[in-house]
Amino acid sequence: MIDHRNLTFAYPRQAMPVFERLDWQVERGEAWAVIGPSGCGKSTLLYLIAGIRRPASGAVTLDGVDAGDKSNRGRVGLILQDYGLLPWATAWDNARLGIRVRRFYGRSQDGAPARLQSWLERLGIAGLRAKYPCQLSGGERQRVAIARALALEPEVLLLDEPFSALDALAREDLERLTVRLWAELGMTTVFVTHSIEEAVLVGRRILVLRHPPNRLSFVVENDLAGTTDHQRQLAFHAKCDELRAELATEASSAPALRTTMLRHRG
After folding, report:
1. Alpha helices in 154-261 (DSSP H)
2. Which residues make Cβ contacts (< 8 Å) with residue 249, sequence separation at least 6?
3. How far apart are CA 108 and CA 111, in angstroms?
4. pTM for the complete prediction?
5. Which of 197, 210, 221, 232 stands the most exposed, by the fewest C-beta atoms within 10 Å?
6. Domain definitions of the chain by residue range
7. Distances from the Cα of 231 to the Cαs of 4, 203, 216, in angstroms?
8. Ramachandran region of residue 163, left (φ > 0), alpha (ψ -120 to 50) or beta?
């Protein structure tokens, strides 16, 4: 589905590339979490998948087609940390942008408004459709952003630390919602987070990124994603400890000692 082959990417005027000859594959319907230290390239990875950024060399493809190709536009939904809502538009009009994007890229509009209304109801914000972003809580604004992305009916859903600015209760509520949506829709999902617990909750596979340059695809397999009452599950905490130890190892290691081998750990 999503294929990174020999990917190299660097920002202008930066001596060190973010990714260097990186290989990483995401199969259709998989739920991934991506975690790593600040500045390691987590958000950049999403922008490369969405076609917003372009690799210096190598390729990022969706079903064999370059991620930046116009035929892929509208296939990918992106949910941002800062919601990305238009302040002058109501909740309904912000959410309806997903439908407008579908229309712009020539995708079917049959029943789109009814489906959007259904998503607003499912997300618990149907009664807020006439309100503006400044009148909504952080959790409500993020639900509008989720509705907008789902209205696009994407094949791939990318989430860039979407709940990090929310209070604990709102965050836990939306984490559970994300897990339910993935289970229901089977949508290919890549979820960037700084939270170890969140990564284990939402990602059936977890990509651990390092300080640049990232040459190594280190993947933690995780069959505990979506665990109910996870705070009380010893296995869940053990998996978090495993991931925490891996991140701590990276923090204490010298960049010169990094290898380019592909490692998988269950």
Report:
1. 168-185, 196-202, 234-252
2. none
3. 9
4. 0.89
5. 232
6. 85-154
7. 34, 16, 31
8. alpha
**Residue 42 dihedral angles phi and psi, to the nearest 5°:** -60, -55
Within 8 A by CB and 6+ apart from 136, the residues are: 91, 128, 144
Evaluate whether 136 touches 91 at the Cβ level (below 8 Å): yes
Distance CA 68, CA 29 (A): 21
User: Strand pairing of 263-265 and 188-192?
Assistant: unpaired
User: Cβ neighbours of residue 127 under 8 Å, at least 6 residues apart?
Assistant: none
Tokens of 225: 């994603």
Task: Give pLDDT < 70 ranges for the chain.
Answer: 106-110, 230-231, 250-266
Give the pLDDT score at 264.
39
Label the pairing between strands 205-208 and 218-221.
antiparallel
217 vs 33, 71, 149, 191, 206, CA distance in Å? 13, 28, 28, 16, 10
What's 23's DSSP letter? E
User: Which residues on neighbouring strands pair with residue 156, listed in sequence order?
Assistant: 76, 188
Which residues lie across from 78 on neighbouring strands? 158
Task: Tell me the pLDDT tens digit for each residue of 110-151.
Answer: 678 888 999 999 899 999 999 999 999 999 999 999 999 998
